[in-house]
Amino acid sequence: MKLRQNKYDKHSYENYWIEGADGLKSNDNRKDFGDGLGANISVDYQLSNKSNIGFIYDYGFGHSNMNITNTSNYFQNDNYTNTLLTYAEHRATGKQHTASAYYDLKFGKQDHKLSITGNYFSNVPETTIDFTTTENLGDRFVVKSPSTVDYKIYSGQADLTLPYQFAKTETGVKFTNFDNNSNISYQNLINGNYVTDPLKSNQFEYNEKNYAAYISFEKSFNEKWSAKAGLRYEYAVVNGNSLTSGQQTENSYGKFFPTAYVTYKSNENHTFNLNYSKRINRPGFRAINPYRWYININSYFTGNPFLKPSINHNFELSYVYKGKLSASAYFQRTLDAFGQLANLKNENRISTFENYYNQNSMGVSLNYSDTFFKMWEANYSANYAYMNTDVFATDAASRKGNSYDFDVQNTLGLTKGKTIQLILNYWFRLPSNSGNVYMDFAGVFTSGLKLNFMERNLQVNVMVSDIFKQGKSIGKIYYTTGTHSYNNYYDARRLTVSATYTFGNKKVKGASRHVNFDEKNRAN
């Protein structure tokens, strides 16, 4: 059983400028604060020497709050027209439940394996936004926007591994059900009473069902050559219904997703690999839900219930030397890629998600891992990519450009038994491009100590992140109608202290079964 607790208080800022016939200079001065509690319990029981069952449950509860002062100055053809000053208080409470159960069985002379897993996830955040907007002429608007969002995800899958002599065969089926129901209200203070504005309120129901089946074959032909090929089929049924506006969306699609790789190992020092995969990238619920996050009375962020998943085709050629140095060259073709776009019309700014571009990317990546002097563990990686973006159906601009990022990780043992270790990590990105976005330099330097006491039963970690305050988000977003610029910082500099104490006999093997439930990340 594991217990966790957190509490945070940080100061952030956001700056956003829009240049064009309709202009905007927006500044957010923001305070984020909140807390959280959680518990995780795992139980694994061996029914026999070839079968076991298990259960994992996780509960989380917390508050996520913000106080934001926004100043928005508006322009027409570079001529100042108006200022809106808004003070907003965001108060959110969230409860999350995650439960997984599994059954594993080995059978047959070759230890065939059957795994059956069921998952459940529930997230029910309740949020109230109170904000007051004042115009430069003195007009004042007081608004309350309470909302409740109910995410529920169910999944079940069965996987079968058959280690035949002609090829190792894996096959399985999976079903996932997503429910996303939300009730968002926009209420104006009129004569001392809050009156709901039906045009800005929305009750929305979303359901998505995914059915999948796969099969793969893996074969080692000799000591040098091996290969694997697989095929996955997914079918999805999506329904969205706005109970407020009566707008309904229905969509269904089925697609095949092949994967294949070939590995050649010339000797113990040199390994080559060539692979291809086709993947689907589904949007998170925040990008789909038409929930509105208001900046002021005229500006808001919202999701798009018509958003579609994107498809990636990936090709990669890689080389590994002595298990320490790896290099790869890759090409990726992305179709119907989605992202967030902002549109300003007079003083009405709307930011939402769209499928708006196809992109070709090619690049190279390097990684080197080694241990020096028995006390210095190092891992270094670098990645370069060139991208060509073709925009459709929006006023975003097509772009070409390069991207560069690096990651340096060092762990130094300061004592003979490595009971005290020094951490020195630095991630940084040089000025880069992605989609229709140019990103300026950013970096995060993290350092700290890992301490082990009481025969390693007690572990204490003390870490400081973003020491040089380089974790800023600065760049430009290009449109055919003008250029948008941003300069944001979310107070990434922080001190983290954690302690873990292990009870009981270490020789007793605990539950270590990994349960893959990535779908719940879409609800965050």
Automatic annotation (TrEMBL):
Domain Outer membrane protein beta-barrel: 106-501
A Pfam family: OMP_b-brl_3
Main location: membrane
Domain of life of the source: Bacteria
Keywords: Cell outer membrane, Membrane, Receptor
SUPFAM superfamilies for the chain: Porins
Compartment(s) where it occurs, according to its Swiss-Prot or TrEMBL record: Cell outer membrane
Coiled-coil boundaries: none
Signal peptide feature range: none
Entry keyword Phosphoprotein: no
Keyword presence, Glycoprotein: no
Protein name: TonB-dependent receptor
